[in-house]
Amino acid sequence: MIRFIDMHRDQFGVELICRVLKDAVRGFLTSRGYRAAKTRPASARQLKDELLVGEIKRLHAENYGVYGVRKMHALLRRQGWDVGRDQTARLMRLAGVAGVKRSKKVFTTKSDPTIPQPKDLVKRNFTAPAPRRLWVADITYVATWAGFAYVAFVIDVFSRMIVGWNVASTLKADVLPLQALNMAAFNAAGPLDELVHHADHGSNYLSIVYTDRIVELGAKPSTGTVGDSFDNALAEAVNGLYKTELIRRRGPWRTVEQVELATLEYVWWWNNQRLHGELDYRPPIEVEDAYYADLESAQPVIAGQGTR
User: Most buried by CB count within 10 Å: which residue of 51, 80, 129, 306?
Assistant: First the structure.
C-alpha cells in the first residue's frame, strides 16, 4: 500500500488516492495512517528484508540468473544467512527475480547402423562410487550468425563435473568429441583402467579413432540403445541445462569463438560454483574434494610418519 501511494502521490495526491480506494480495496490505508507509517522507524524485519533483497539480486546475477527458490535458499544458507525457504520465495518476488525454465527440445546425434556398437554397460544406472568410474558424453549445437557451433561434453557421473569439453564448427570425430575426451584424460588425476565411457549411438562416438582412444586409455566403451535418450539421460540433462542457462539467455551468438569463450566461463561456474540438487546443493569440486579428503583420512598412517 505504502509503495503504491508513493508511486502515484505526485500525480493524484495522498488524500485523493486514499478516498477513492478505501471502498474498493480491503484494508487500505487512510491518509492519516499513511503519514504515520512514513514517519515510523523501519522495523528490524524491514531492514533485514532490504539487505537480503539486495543480496539476492547480486547472487542471482552472479549465477547466470538461473537459480529458483530451492537453489537460492541453499546458497543463502551457505552464505551464512538464517532464512527459510518461504522467506526466500517472498524476498525473490520482492527482488523481481525467478528461476529459469528448461526447454523440452533435445538434440541427438546421427547413428550409423553399419558401425559395430559396444554393449550397454550402464543400463540407465547413472551412479558411480568414485571419480573416474563412469563418464558420459554427448554433443549439442548452438546456432550462430556464422553457422552452427557444435559442443561436446564429457561428464564424470560421480560428481557431475564436466571433465572435458570442446567447441568446434564441425562434428568430425577427430576434431570435436576426441578433443573433449583428450581434455578429460589429461585432467584425470589417476588411472582410467576402471572407467566406463558411455555415449549414444552417434557415428562420432562409434568411429574408430574415438573408440580406439577409449581403449588406449584403458577404459571400456559403452553405448545405449538406438533412439532412446533415457539411455544417456545424464549427458542429455547437462546439454539441456547448458542450453537453458547459457545459450538461450545470452544469445544471439555471432561466432563459434564467442560460444567457445562463453562455454569456458560456464564450465568453470558449473564445476566450481553451481549448486546441484543431486549433490545436496554442492558444486562438483566440493564433492570431489570431500571424497579425496575422506579417502586420505581413511588410509593407515605408516610407521614413522605423522609423528616427530
Answer: 51
C-alpha–C-alpha distance, residues 1 and 22, integer Å: 11
For residue 130, which of 211, 218, 215, 191 has the smallest C-alpha distance?
Answer: 191
**Cis peptide, bond prior to residue 131, ω within 30 of zero:** no
**For residues 32-47, average pLDDT:** 68
With beta carbons less than 8 A apart as the criterion, state whether 157 and 235 touch.
no
- Phi, psi angle pair for 104, to nearest 5°: -90, 0
Residue 292 grid cell:
579425496
The x, y and z cell numbers of residue 139, run together, are 554433443
Q: Can you give the pLDDT at residue 197?
A: 97
Question: What's the pTM?
Answer: 0.81
Q: d(Cα 166, Cα 200) in Å, to the nearest integer?
A: 17
**Helix axis angle, 177-187 to 208-216, nearest 10°:** 10
Distance between first and last Cα of the chain: 70
- Tell me the C-alpha to C-alpha distance, in Å, between residue 136 and each of 103, 198, 231, 251, 266: 21, 5, 10, 27, 18
Express each pLDDT in 128-155 by its tens digit: 999 999 999 999 999 999 999 999 999 9
In whole angstroms, what is the distance from residue 114 CA to residue 99 CA?
44
